Amino acid sequence: MIKLFAFDIDGTLLDNKSLLTSASNEAIKKLQEAGIKVVLASGRVFPSIQFHQNLLGINGPIVATNGSLISLDGKEVYKSYHIDDDLLKALYEFCLKHELEFHFYDEENYYTNRLNLDRIKHLFINNDYGMNYQVGLIIKKDPVSYLIKNGKKDVKFQISGIDEKEISKEEILGLLKQEFEDKLYMTASGDSIIEIGNKDATKWFSIEEICEILGIYNSEVAAIGDAYNDIPMVMGAGLGFAMGNAKKELKDVADVVVADNESNGILEAVNYVLEANKNV
């Protein structure tokens, strides 16, 4: 029997305009009525996921920044898995050496060394929702030294704009793995970015930790997503779903593939779980 359902946000709960669909709202309401715990698990920062929890009218556990932050109540950070300062410095030097665009986060702020408006659109006020739910913006010549000097810790490092470079994503990943493969977790929620975190910080790692606290077995978990960073949780869950718009690599490891995020994929997955629970 499924007792907990973990949801990715972008490309899963949200449509292609990054808005919640009526199908998503209906699906979450059905899970609440059935007493199934809902966990939002995203590469997004903690305040952004809190905002979407409020839109959905739910509370409870959150997995943020690809697993590096865990909240049990949706209000406070319970645990974080950060990138060590020496590794952060090495990533920074790597990006400077290869002329790669980057930014990174602590629990409250977005850091970069140069302003690219296309990269920070998601930090602006969303007029459809009427508020700014994101983090502070810090632009410094050496943002890494600034973060360390102020006693903060990096929870997610991101290389962006890869599709605009002569060097390919595969080449960049190859170079990163040569230097960091056993030290950091590398994934992506899109084709033109690489997201980097603590070596233990996957969505599934943090979902497992939440389940242990709640007394829920892995076999009692369902998970759904659309991107590379969703692969660990879709593989680890007792019942794993891929959206119709998901990457092929995710579809290949999912138990069930449902409709896309512009259709009723979320509702299809939830109805599947509710029907399966009736037969237990």
Notes on the structure:
With 280 residues, the protein is of the alpha/beta class. The chain folds into 2 domains: 4-80 and 201-278, HAD superfamily/HAD-like (Rossmann fold, 3-Layer(aba) Sandwich), CATH 3.40.50; 85-198, Hypothetical Protein, Haloacid Dehalogenase-like Hydrolase, Chain: A, domain 2 (2-Layer Sandwich). It is 35% helix and 20% strand. The chain is built from 10 helices and 14 strands. The protein has helices spanning 9-13, 22-34, 46-56, 85-97, 143-149, 169-180, 203-214, 231-236, 248-253, 265-278, and strands spanning 4-7, 37-41, 62-64, 69-71, 79-80, 101-105, 109-112, 136-139, 156-160, 184-187, 194-198, 221-225, 239-242, 256-257. It has an 8-stranded mixed β-sheet, with helices on both faces. The chain has a 6-stranded mixed β-sheet with strand order 8-7-6-9-11-10, covered by helices on one side. The protein is globular. InterPro entries: Cof (IPR000150), HAD-like_sf (IPR036412), HAD-SF_hydro_IIB (IPR006379), HAD_sf (IPR023214). One of its GO terms (cellular component) is cytosol.
